[in-house]
Design a protein that fits this description.
alpha+beta, globular, 1 helix, single chain
């Protein structure tokens, strides 16, 4: 089963897909998650059927879908 991380940022919507059975893909997804959350991105786990999920702070490779949203700057 493919798992997906959608990254919503200044350049649009980017998808990162990993297979939990492929360690290199899981590590790449984990590295991306950690890098972006350190930069202030907020991460959300999406429940089955697209129902509203919850904010997460740690990468879980078993989640089917994660959305990362860029921090909002204003002033």
């Amino acid at each position: 089963m493919a798992h997906v991380m959608r990254i919503m940022g200044g350049s649009g919507d980017t998808k990162l897909i990993w297979d939990v059975d492929k360690k290199d893909e899981v590590q790449a997804a984990r590295d991306t998650f950690d890098k972006l959350t350190t930069k202030g991105y907020k991460a959300f786990a999406v429940k089955k059927g697209g129902a509203q999920g919850e904010m997460i702070t740690k990468f879980d490779p078993d989640l089917e879908k994660i959305i990362l949203a860029a921090p909002i700057s204003g002033g």
